[in-house]
Amino acid sequence: EREAAPPPPSFPPDKHPLRGVPNVEELPAPEGISPSFSKEAGPLIDLFGEYLIRCLYSKTWHLREAAVLKLDLDFNAGLFGDFNTRQFLEGLCVVLKRAISDKIAQVFLTSTQLLQSIAIGLFAIQGDEGLKKSDVQPCLDPLLPLLVERLGDANNRCRDAAAISLTSLVKQPTVGGHFVGQYLLRTSKKKQLPAKSIVSRLSLLESLVTECQCIQPMKKDGMTQEALMQAAMGWFNSPHQEVRMACVSLVGAIYTLAGPSEIEKHLKDLRPAQLDAFELEFKRRAEGGGGVAEGVGL
Fold this sequence. Notes:
The chain has helices at residues 38-48, 50-56, 61-76, 85-100, 105-123, 133-140, 144-149, 156-170, 177-184, 195-212, 225-235, 241-258, 264-267, 272-286. By secondary structure, it is mainly alpha-helical.
């Protein structure tokens, strides 16, 4: 991205393909799309125009950011109202797959703006005029692992944006907590997650339980108590104290909302000191407190 960029293209102010994007007149012209991406880019060009898609595939991150921002601006302005909704969603998800995995923080942050816009503008609409789960969830399937991975990002703003985006998706009737939760609860035997990433997942799961009641039977499309407990107790074996503390806090949230029925069987093999940490957490929450007493039994 250090190569000399082409000079800014000359367009009348009201004819620039990126009009509406701040400082668009200062942006260089995008290079052509690499042949290796031509098959993927072809349908996107048909939907959104060649210039914007050349920006999306550009080596210049300012152009990539501008392309995503332009889509967000136009979507919120209602300029895609005549598009076939399913084809439009499929195209947007290809755009988002590239942008969510972008190494440049600002491109990723802009992609979460677009994702939240379509979550509210497309995923919240049901019935004859809207999309079905069978339309939305397959399109999101390749995006969610990338978004969950950003929960472990070194950039605090990126971590927060990922959590906000996932929470927004949970709240949409065509997405829901059960669908999103399976990605948050997924672990890999081949790849050990960093402690920071696990803590971020656990923190978000706790938020979804306490603030959204995203747990069955409180929410029909919520996460199951069994799946949450299995994940929490699996991560409780971590050598990192901050991970174990986050596990205790999540289990405390489940206990407070759903009671002990699905919890006690998972605690029966713990050492007395470990069990004390959970019981103290249950007591603290019952008395109106929260959190975990640092280091107790952990």
